[in-house]
Design goal:
Distance between the termini of chain A: 53 Å
Radius of gyration of chain A: 25 Å
Shape of chain A: globular
Helix content of chain B: 10-25%
Strand content of chain B: 25-35%
Oligomer: heterodimer
Distance between the termini of chain B: 45 Å
Mean pLDDT of chain B: 81
Strand content of chain A: under 5%
Helix content of chain A: over 70%
Structural class of chain B: alpha+beta
Mean pLDDT of chain A: 82
Largest sheet of chain A: none
Largest interface: A-B, 34 and 46 residues
Low-confidence stretches of chain A: 1-21, 260-270, 518-525
Order of helices and strands of chain B: EEEHEEEEHHHEHEHEEHHEEEEE
Number of helices of chain B: 8
Number of strands of chain B: 16
Order of helices and strands of chain A: HHHHHHHHHHHHHHHHHHHHHHH
Number of strands of chain A: 0
Low-confidence stretches of chain B: 284-322
Strand order of the largest sheet of chain B: 7-8-9-3-10-11
Shape of chain B: globular
Chain lengths: 525, 322
């Protein structure tokens, strides 16, 4: 016998899956309640869509205008995804594998556009060039805010890349270009594909950019069906079609991600990669990166700022701005508290109990997040009309929508932080006489506190930027930054909108920039 | 009175029989080591006794109370079985004092007991430290103090020293035993390290393939293993076959005297020759020299004859005579 610690036998791993938490019916009940709350709106969407019979659904779906709508939405998604793949992959390669001057700074800056709300960016562009309205304006804005979905995972996978494979290819007689295409590109393909599908999903779900650019895609038309005369059945049916298209992409993304993980086999730490010298090409490369950041970051920010100093900036009503800011922060804080409280049992359960039903509960809370905000908003409206009539257009309904939309951020981050703490720690606590809920309270929650705080931060940021659900559900007379900006943009009063746009950038993008600093792998959306 | 009584304990994971009718009795105030190679079911036994798994058959009784089996399954927190896991698993968000006091009811008695337990493990004055400011050995001793504090019926230590530096182990081991004895605690130490088992425990239970191969004192185990497998697992040595006639075994290497403790009948047997008793002396002048002091592991050493290969032989029963 050696004195080295023994290999962990298979049955022990199995035993790890269970722990004291399994026996807490309170926790399990709370988790199921959260899952039900997040699933209720989708159920009412189905009820509403089929309320006039399936034949009606069929007729609505197989109409020329529905087909046109699908083509317009998918076309936009395809163009934006292609642009993002190109920009995201190229920038990721430049900042991780070459000796591009200032690459450390670029790495952080390149991730920032992700945190700029699409409608703020769209507001800036259209205030400068009203002629941009339409397909290309929407494509420009959506590409500039969503390419980080490709850039971040590709940069991460390039950093992990095992250089030995490239060296082997070189030693087998391949030239650098052949290596780049045959080996490197192939290895980053899973990351790029997954990122690209996220972009497509984002484009289909986006409301702010297409609405500001007046491009008739699904989300805007659904909003129109709700606003103009309120045709609930049509809004619901179009929502379902959009959900169906989105689900196809979600499933594709799920499959690609699974394969990508399997593609990274082989142990051992990858050796640090020496940067590829760009030589004289580094000045055009530098110009390219700087130019890109000018377009996606500097121009929108500059346009917003310059509206403030243009002639009639005296019209900025500071009192109103302050009220909107206060409302935004207050409503977002409330939504964050509710979302975290509801997410806690789900995250705890998912981290500690690996049974199928626990995973199912967790997935339910993620489904809503994959769906467009406008769909969730419309669905919550239906719940309000059919189930909670007295609360319709009251604050609880808005909070409800936020929770359904963003609860999964908190679930994911609570789960991750609980998983980091060994289940042994829970068991020790039990063996010392602590009851299951006492263990949660005295051990698990304090240990998960940083993760819970991070999750709360994500929910808070996302809520402050949210547009479609806020538009549909905000109580009459109470405006947030997003709804004020929307109102001013709708009447082309850009000077009055600018303060709200700037405030949104400051409250949403600034914290994200601070969070991303130093760990550019974590996408903060 | 026994602090722990395990009867016929059986546990399956899928098709794998992890524990097969295991019987273990731990007298109150004693230290028992459960030793076996990895995969022998040690950890499963610990988890069943502590209450983290449900047995398929058999009973577990802590003190006079049946806590598992016979239609009962008492929750871990009500068993009064405190565990000390492999890596200590201190609560990283709590100070040393708060860790030790975790299992104590809130109240006035809490402070003195925490101090007392820290003194027992030789860490008086460390109460305000955080776990990450302690060395591995110190963390392990805090974990022990935490388990001792609420006066549990039983403390179960799971490979408590395997995460420690090999050079540090004997010392921490001795300190742990001293603390357990000083507090009059009953302990079960689960380990794959036979030296650890033999040097720490009053009783050693050898688990092989989910079965109790032997339960005995360290000395008995070493000198009279119940089977060749136990003999091979419990200490170094060579297995030689031979034929027993009375108190002598005839082997191809010569005649070996048989230890009185052996129960093997006359006939074909396997002989385990331990290295320690084989002492080779210079032919004449060294007769009065003592052999090197025996390690404190219960091994009995006897002076061998002045010439030839002679040994104290542990004889194992041979189940398949040729």
């Amino acid at each position: 016998m050696t004195t080295a610690s023994p290999p962990v036998p298979a049955r022990r791993v199995r035993a790890d899956r269970r722990s004291g938490l399994r026996t807490s019916p309170v926790l399990a009940g709370a988790a199921v309640a959260t899952a039900v709350i997040t699933a209720v709106p989708l159920w009412y969407l189905l009820v509403q869509a089929t309320s006039e019979g399936l034949a009606e659904v069929w007729d609505e779906v197989w109409q020329r205008r529905t087909l046109d709508l699908a083509i317009r939405s998918i076309g936009l998604a395809v163009v934006v995804t292609a642009g993002c793949l190109l920009i995201g992959t190229a920038t990721a390669f430049l900042v991780t594998r070459t000796d591009l001057p200032g690459r450390r700074v670029w790495r952080v800056l390149l991730a920032l556009p992700l945190s700029i709300p699409s409608y703020v960016s769209a507001f800036a562009w259209i205030s400068w060039r009203p002629s941009l309205a339409g397909f290309w304006g929407a494509a420009l804005v959506l590409t500039s805010v969503s390419y980080p979905f490709v850039y971040l995972p590709v940069a991460a996978s390039l950093r992990r890349l095992d250089r030995t494979q490239e060296e082997v290819a070189r030693s087998l007689g391949k030239n650098p270009t052949q290596v780049a295409v045959g080996v490197t590109l192939r290895q980053i393909r899973p990351a790029a594909t997954a990122g690209g599908l996220l972009v497509a999903l984002y484009v289909l779900a986006d409301f702010g950019a297409v609405a500001t650019m007046r491009y008739e895609s699904f989300t805007w038309v659904i909003y129109g069906a709700y606003r103009a005369g309120f045709n609930p059945v049509r809004a619901a049916i179009l929502s379902l079609v959009l959900v169906a298209i989105s689900l196809v992409i979600v499933l594709a993304e799920h499959r690609v991600r699974g394969r990508g993980a399997a593609a990274r086999v082989g142990g051992g730490a990858a050796r640090p990669v020496a940067p590829i010298p760009l030589g004289p090409a580094r000045w055009p490369a530098l110009a390219g990166v700087a130019g890109l950041l000018t377009v996606v970051l500097m121009i929108p920010l500059w346009l917003v700022v310059q509206w403030l100093f243009r002639g009639d900036s005296g019209t900025v009503d500071l009192g109103e701005l302050g009220r909107a800011l206060g409302t935004t922060i207050g409503v977002s804080a409330l939504a964050t508290i509710v979302a975290v409280v509801l997410a806690l049992p789900v995250g705890l359960l998912a981290a500690r109990v690996r049974t199928r039903w626990a995973q199912g509960v967790e997935r339910v809370t993620f489904v809503a997040h994959a769906l467009p905000g406008i769909v969730i908003a419309i669905s919550v409206v239906f719940v309000g009309i059919r189930l909670l009539e007295p609360l319709y257009q009251e604050l609880p309904m808005l909070i409800f929508a936020y929770v359904v939309l963003f609860c999964s951020f908190a679930v994911g981050s609570i789960r991750a932080s609980v998983e980091q703490a060994s289940p042994r720690i829970d068991e020790v606590a039990r063996s010392l006489g602590a009851r299951p809920l006492e263990v949660v309270w005295r051990v698990t929650l304090p240990l998960a506190a940083p993760g819970i705080a991070a999750g709360a931060g994500l929910v808070f940021l996302a809520t402050m930027k949210e547009l479609p659900a806020t538009l549909l559900l905000h109580p009459t007379g109470t405006d947030t930054l997003a709804t004020k900006l929307w109102q001013e943009t709708a009447v082309s009063d850009y000077a009055s909108g600018a303060p709200y746009a700037l405030a949104l950038v400051l409250v949403a993008a600034l914290p994200a920039a601070l969070l991303t600093r130093g760990r550019e792998e974590a996408p903060v959306s | 009175m026994s602090a722990l009584e395990v009867r016929g304990l059986t546990k399956r994971f899928g098709g794998v029989l992890a524990l097969d009718h295991v019987d273990v009795v731990v007298p109150a105030g004693s230290i028992t080591a459960v030793v076996g190679p990895s995969g022998s079911g040690k950890t499963t036994l610990l988890r069943l006794v502590a209450g983290f798994e449900r047995p398929d058959a058999g009973t577990v009784a802590v003190g006079d109370t049946i806590v598992a089996g016979a239609g009962r399954l008492v929750a871990p927190e009500r068993r009064r079985v405190a565990i000390v896991p492999q890596e200590g698993a201190l609560f990283p968000h709590l100070s040393v004092a708060a860790n030790v006091g975790f299992g104590l009811p809130r109240g006035r008695g809490k402070g003195p007991r925490v101090i007392e337990c820290l003194e027992l493990v030789g860490l008086a004055g460390y109460d305000k430290r955080r776990p990450d400011q302690l060395s591995g050995g110190q963390q392990q001793r805090v974990a022990l103090a935490r388990a001792l504090a609420p006066h549990p019926s039983l403390i179960m230590l799971d490979e408590p020293f395997s995460a420690l530096d090999a050079a540090l182990r004997p010392q921490v081991r001795a300190e742990v035993v001293a603390a357990l004895r000083a507090d009059g605690a009953t302990a079960v130490i689960v380990t794959h390290d036979r030296d650890e088992a033999l040097s720490m425990a009053d009783q050693v239970v050898v688990l092989l393939d989910g079965r109790v191969a032997q339960a005995a004192t360290p000395a008995t185990l070493y000198r009279a293993p119940a089977s060749a497998e136990v003999a091979a697992f419990i200490g170094p040595g060579e297995v030689v076959s031979g034929e027993r006639r009375g108190s002598v075994v005839h082997t191809s290497r010569g005649e070996l005297p048989v230890d009185v403790a052996s129960r093997a009948p006359d006939g074909r047997v396997d002989v385990v020759v331990r290295p320690e008793p084989v002492l080779v002396y210079p032919p004449t002048d060294a007769v009065d020299r003592d052999p090197v002091d025996a390690d404190d592991d219960g091994t009995d050493r006897r002076t061998a004859g002045a010439s030839g290969v002679d040994a104290v032989a542990a004889v194992a029963e041979d189940e398949a005579p040729a």
